[in-house]
Each structure stands twice: as structure tokens, then as C-alpha cells.
Write a structure and sequence with these properties.
51% of the residues lie in helices and 2% in strands. The chain contains 8 helices and 2 strands; from the N terminus they run H-H-H-H-H-H-E-H-H-E. Strands 1-2 form a two-stranded parallel ribbon. The longest helix has 18 residues.
Length: 165
Amino acid sequence: MSTKSQQLQIRVTPEQKAQLKRLARSAGQDVSGYVLSRTLPEARLRFSEIIGALGNREDYRFALAELNDLLSGLTRAQLPDAVAVAPPKMRDLSPFLQNYVAAMVEQAAHQREVPPPSWGRDVSPLEAPYFATPLRSLRLHLLRAAPAPFKRRNIFVDSGVGARV
């Protein structure tokens, strides 16, 4: 994470300031740290970092594995906030990676029984199907096994969020 070099001022009532101080003290934080943790949760920052890493790597598999770990570890309460906003670097990704990320997030939302973020609707499905293996003999298996969010995006993989090979 980068060094803090900017300042932000907000106006609050004396009662609000006192309440923020109490809440921060009970959380073991200073007021700035407390407010930042509430407005920019660690999971949202991590999600954005991973999306940035996807665009900076030729081999995207490790970044997708990191995304899998992040999404798998989030609770039902944490997930919606962590993925509510598509990071700006999302639009720099290839259509394949945009769809893969959207499918992973949609599957994680389905698993946690929460609505998927609205930005996923802005990612158009792939025009041509993508199969996780070049072996034609496995395509029928992938057509059946792929999780629904991946199928809707024309991506055929063996497993989704939470699974590791």
C-alpha cells in the first residue's frame, strides 16, 4: 500500500465527532484509521490490487488463484462491499479476463446468497466459447461441469470459486 500523502477534511457535529472517537477507541484504532477501514475496507482494496495484477501479468493464473482465495475467504457480509465497485483497471483487462472475473464474483455471490454486483451486467459474454483444455475429448465434460456463471459467459472450466486443483 502506498504512503499517505493527502489529507481529507469532513465536517461533523460535535456529537458525531465524539461518537467516531468512541467507536475508533473501541476498535483499537485512531479516528482516521477507523474511518478509512469503514469506507475502504481491506477486502475492497485487495480486490482492486488483484485486478491490477491481472492486467500486469502475462501469466494470469496466479492472480486468478489469488482472486479465488480472496473470494473464498469472504463472508456473506463482506463480499458485497468488497466487490461492489469494479476497479478502474478492470476495463484494461482482455474480454476473457473481464468475463472470468465477473463469473468468479457472480459465483461467489450465488454461493453466499447475495446479489451479484451490478457492474457484472456491463461485461458482455465472450462471442466464442473458451474451453479450459485444448483436448476435444474433455469438452463434453466441461460443458456439463462448468458452474452456471461461467457458462453464461461462454467459459467452460472444470470448477469455480472455492475449488483448487
